[in-house]
Amino acid sequence: MPVTATPRPTGHPGYSETLPRKPESAAVARRLVHIALAAWGLENLVDDTSVVITELVSNAADHGRLPSIRVIVSRISEDRVRVGVVDRSMDLPTMRTDSNGEQVRGRGLLLVDALTEQWGTELYGWGKQVWGEIQSRSAA
User: Fold this and answer.
1) For the domain 14-96+103-135, what is the CATH code?
2) 74: part of which helix (H) or strand (E)?
């Protein structure tokens, strides 16, 4: 008897990976972003999206609670992607707006805000996802 496959809705295409909650995981997250964007023909978004995912991973590494984080890259429309990092902390990210020139760290969300169409936080009962959406400039 032949086996038949029944198509099921799968939602938007996406890539995700669980990584150690360490700053070094940003390099793996950037590779995941590059792979996803190349598969979708959105290589023009690699630079901005790589900066955004690096900042989100860095924040999760600094403020998460458990030893791992989850990086998610999804295509939400033909010319728009969302990158997010899930961690087990309920602490909401805050964007620093002070102008202390001696402060080297703590301004990553300013970069995220500048490079994304929008960004935000989804709270879960056990943690959160901080995400940003990047759209192709040629289609914006």
Assistant:
1) 3.30.565.10
2) strand 68-77
Q: Where are the domains of the chain?
A: 14-96+103-135
Question: What would the two tokens of residue 122 be?
Answer: 């989804």
52-105 pLDDT, tens digit each? 999 999 999 999 989 999 999 999 999 999 999 999 999 998 877 665 555 555
Other Cβ atoms less than 10 A from the Cβ of 86: the count is 22
- Identify the sign of the CA torsion 85, 130, 30, 22: negative
For 6-41, give the DSSP string. Answer: PP----S-EEEEEEESSTTHHHHHHHHHHHHHHHTT
